[in-house]
Amino acid sequence: MKIGSIDLGEKPVFLAPMEDVTDPSFRYICKGFGADMMYTEFISSDGLIRDAAKTIAKMQVYDYERPIGIQLYGHIPDAIVDAAVRAEAAGPDLLDINFGCPVNKIARRGAGSGMMREPEKMVEITRRVVEAVKLPVTVKTRLGWDEESKIIVELAERLQDVGIAALTIHGRTRSQLYKGEADWTLIGEVKRNPRMHIPIIGNGDITTPQRAAECFERYGVDGIMIGRASFGHPWIFREVKHYLATGELLPPMSVADRVDLAKRHLAKSLEVKGEKVGILEMRRHLSCYFKGLENFKETRLKLVTLTSPEELFATLDYIKENWQ
Q1: Using an 8 Å Cβ cutoff, are 174 and 140 in contact?
Q2: Which is more confidently placed, 191 or 148?
Q3: Catalytic: 30?
Q4: Could you point out which of 35, 90, 160, 277 has its C-alpha 20 to 30 Å from the C-alpha of 222?
């Protein structure tokens, strides 16, 4: 599979962009487990053109992450085009436009999946971004706004016609948010459409290696994207790729290996974000690495309240010694 000149090989597995999750330290971990393509956290075009420091910081990419994309969202055409030009200058391998985020504070302003109610505007924004930059431009979107307006089959053609290099489709409508099951039938219909020639990446409810293989086989997609299932379980990329290659499941990761992973992740977060922010932003990850352990409540509380690296590393060593 290729996006422009980016060769991702057969059956690539993508890490979905997730706000407050896919920061550089998490991307570093997922890359180590075999994620073929990754994205920054999604970036507000309004924040970028206002030179908001936090927004600009999210565009930092590293050579070891490549190929990597910067994902933008917004609802004002001029602002998105301006932001795309600025994002291109940060040196990613591609730019992605988020027309899929269902969160109220974004969608109600007409950004993210709110754009599904304005397909003409969505297509026009995409055309203008494609014309404004030299990098490949991709789009991530949903099936439609609600059950009565699943427009993705026609919309996919129109987005392709204005020049996008690949399309990622989440198998839910905006109204569903993340509830219910993702419906992959329309993703498969887009892929089977004889007019479509760009890569189609499927997203939604890929939580196991078996489901990943099924999505490739049943719906014919060129790639799959994993989002929420990677949170607290970034080794899912290794599991999926091993299963696709061999048809066999890897054994579960041991507690000792999860401790080593958590320590590696924490060290990278401290390196990238500094002590205060690095610890605060790691808390959501640390406790999730140890889901399912018995009699873990008190230790989990330490992981989300301790403020010194030394104490956190000592607690992780304690976990390795006391849980098998």
Answers
A1: no
A2: 191
A3: no
A4: 90
